[in-house]
Specification:
Blueprint lengths: L6 H13 L9 E8 L7 H5 L4 H7 L5 H22 L9 E2 L5 E2 L5 E8 L2 E8 L4 E6 L6 H8 L2 H8 L3 H21 L18 E2 L11 E5 L6 E8 L4 E7 L9 E5 L4
Amino acid sequence: MPSGRDAPMLDTIARWLRERGLRTTPDPIAQVIVFDSTPWCSCREEAFHLLSHAERERANRFRHAHHRDTYVLAHAVWRLALAEALGVAPGEFVLASEPSGRPFIPGTDLATSLSHSNSHVAIALAHAPCIGVDIERTPARFAWHDLARMVCTPAESATLQDLEPEARSNALLALWTRKEALLKAFGLGLRESPSGMDVDAGVAIAAPLAAAYFPACVVHPLPASPDFVGALAAPASITAFHWHCLSAATLPDGLSSSEAAPPM
């Protein structure tokens, strides 16, 4: 673990992750970690050195420091979480990526997914064939008609049109996260049009033909928050979730977690 002025903060995160029990057997459990990266920005330099060469190169291409810090901290905590789940040091595994961008760890059955929006980050992992997570900040910041054309089926668009403007934007953003999480789980990115997918929460959805080797997945909303909306897509065989919220508002009391059956 890094040493120096900022090391205690990274040590705190690593210890907190260790206490979450991420190193599980292949039980039907998905682990989801959500956090705001802003309180952890003072350890950005130490976090940077946890990243792979490719990740450091990408981090250096960000024009805005805020976006770079979120990327660095998201990927550093992701690596710490994966290392804990695998029972190895952060540098003792390879985090590879398929051409679609879907991450995987060669030689393991651990599926994982990462998403970040503004300063908020969501990490998901499970011993499963696939998993996908997506998080978006609220309130929504997009042109309704532009996103609706890309995301909605005709029936979804008609339903959303009947809502008040604020409720419509929130519902569209939630719909987007469900579809994005599912596309990530299936490793499709935007090769599959979201507007051609019906994605109801709590319903097993079969993979499109291009990803038919993956099992049907169920999409679940992340716990409600005034700052973000998110969704997790996991195989129907996943029957329990451990939600972990990493907070630095007050240490160590700000660190919390919970366990739940899949929300419906």
